[in-house]
User: Fold this.
Amino acid sequence: MRISMVSEHASPLATLGGVDAGGQNVHVAALSSALAARGHAVTVYTRRDDDALPERVPLCDGVEVVHVTAGPPAPVPKDELLPHMGQFADELAEHWRADAPDVIHSHFWMSGLAALDAARRPGVASPPVLHTFHALGNVKKRHQGSDDTSPPERSLLEPQVGREADGVVATCSDEAFELIPLGVPSSRISVVPCGVDNTLFSPDGPAEPRTDRFRIVTVGRLVPRKGVGTTISALARLAARGHDDVELVVIGGSQGGDAVQTDPDVQRLLAHARAEGVEHLVTFRGQLRHEELPAALRSADLVVCAPWYEPFGIVPLEAMATGVPVVATAVGGLIDTVVHGVTGVHVPPRDADAIADAVEGMLAEPAQRVAFGRAGVARAAVRYSWAKVAADTERAYRRAARAQAGGRPERRAHAGRAEGGVRR
Ligand code: UDP
Assistant:
């Protein structure tokens, strides 16, 4: 198949860990590569955010990244990209007229808008459009309230993308449950998780040097909803209970190397650690290259993932694949990936005491930590290899193509309207 991936803000070529670069970038890069390994030809369309970028950049054998001019050729926060999606669609339509794909897979709601718009332009062959949301605006608003910087149009346009797409590829069961009340017919939803690169993330390989302290590691963007603040508070609870031999290594942020301390999120979290009296137990490593993460994870006794909510969350999988037990909030994709009592422990969100209890339990049980680590490696290999994810995604593409060939009578003739009878 000739597959067009559309990922407006998240380039598979980007550096990870900054405000707008995380799991979606990893997902698009790895899924595209794994589909190419199955013999497909993949083109990824992403927004040009630098004048100097060539139009086409090969990612690997069978995958090419095309930089689409839409808005200024400079970094623009993703929540300010909506006005440029018309131009993005113009460019996509131009490409697809010249080089017709067999299937289109858009990522994040604005890519979905542009892809659906372009696919219905005159002269475009109109292949099935499948969509992965990566995050849902209504969930974000529920948790972030007025701190959510998404444009107001999102609440109307995002569900419309779900209703108009020929298929929605949800990354976890929790997301599927969120989509149905938005009017997305359950018959068009497939659940295919994100995967993990278990050649990179494996227990075998070097570990970073470490101290004698029990080491907790967190990895990810440092935006408040990722819950690093709660983990710092848990560290303080542990210290108050006499466990002052526990340290926290925080990886991620907008800066790397010596510039870490200039990152406003690091400053915010450092102030929090100071207020909690555990500044001396927390190390901010800043952004690490993806290839540097396995060694950092191998130095951990435990990884804590404490988001308030999480559309999927690749980091717990990376920890599991590396053989490290995980304490994770029971939200979003983490409900599916981390198995409570088998690969780690689930805790409620925004609950520092619960994290402290879970860590305390695992501190006392080294044999259990080893067992959780082993079970994580097995689960990541069996359920979450990118090869399996690509095979399942391909099945969703073929299913949407069959449905389209069988004739979905209302296809794209119902913009902005929920279909009768699908709300349940
Ligand atoms: N990541 C990285 N270096 C960093 C911080 C994060 O390579 O300094 C990677 C991390 O390994 C993971 C991704 O960024 O693959 C974050 O994905 P996740 O789904 O956990 O969170 P998101 O950022 O999408 O909310």
